[in-house]
Amino acid sequence: MSDISVNIEIDDEAKYEKCFYCFASLSKYNKENDHFPVPYDCGGTQTIPACVTCHDMKDRFPIDRWTIETWTELMVEFDKLRSRTLRILFAKVVCAAMRMEKTRKKELE
Ligand SMILES: [Zn+2]
After folding, report:
1. Opening angle at CA 36, ends 35 and 38, nearest 5
2. Per-chain residues with Cβ under 5 A from ion ligand 1
3. I need a labelling partner for 20 at 20 to 30 A (CA). Which of 12, 54, 92, 107 fits?
4. Residue among 33, 45, 47, 34 at smallest CA distance from 2
5. Domain co-membership, 56 together with 77
6. 21-45: per-residue pLDDT in tens?
7. 3 has pLDDT over 70
8. pTM over cut 0.85
9. For the chain, how many structural domains are there in total?
């Protein structure tokens, strides 16, 4: 179903012990298997370990509902991005989220 085929290498220790996103220690109580890089509903079968909070933020909490604190945190991290593609992707995501938020607010008026 999906055209994307990317195999994310995860070392054995990280596979079972750390959240792929925030590196928090995982237990059987807070570990979830996140379909990444291809979402499950797009045919993805590979999963990475994620804590519930990160998995929620990625898949269950719409980006236009992210808080200003989250965006501020991201903007601080922007300088650390050294890849042109990642910087453009980041800028694109921020613009898209702001447009979605603007549209949502207009619909509520
Ligand atoms: Zn996490």
Report:
1. 90
2. 19, 21-22, 24, 51, 54
3. 92
4. 45
5. no
6. 999 999 888 999 999 989 999 999 9
7. no
8. no
9. 2
User: If you measure from the C-alpha of residue 60 to the centroid of ligand 1, how many angstroms do you get, rounded to a whole number?
Assistant: 14
| Residue pair 87/95 in contact by the 8 Å Cβ criterion | no
Q: What residue type is 65 in one-letter code?
A: R
The alpha carbon of 108 and the centre of ligand 1 are apart by a number of angstroms equal to: 32
Higher pLDDT, 11 or 71: 71
Domain span at residue 74 reads: 63-108
Cα atoms in the Cβ-side hemisphere of radius 13 Å centred on 13? 3
Can you give the pLDDT at residue 72?
A: 86
Parallel, antiparallel, or unpaired: how do β-strands 47-51 and 31-35 relate? antiparallel
Q: What pLDDT does residue 62 have?
A: 87
**CB within 8 Å of 81: residues ≥ 6 apart:** 87, 90
Handedness of CA 43, 48, 50, 54 (dihedral sign): negative
Block residue for tokens 């079968």:
45
- pLDDT, one tens digit per residue, over 70-107 is 888 888 888 888 899 999 998 998 888 888 888 888 99
